Amino acid sequence: MPRAKLFAVAMFAAIGLAGCFGGGGGRHVIGESKAYEASLFRQNCAICHGPEGDGKILDDGMKVPSLREGDFKAKTENQIYDQIANGGNGMVGFRRQLSEREMRLLVDLVKRDLRGQ
Ligand code: HEC
Question: How many domains does the chain have?
Answer without folding.
Answer: 1
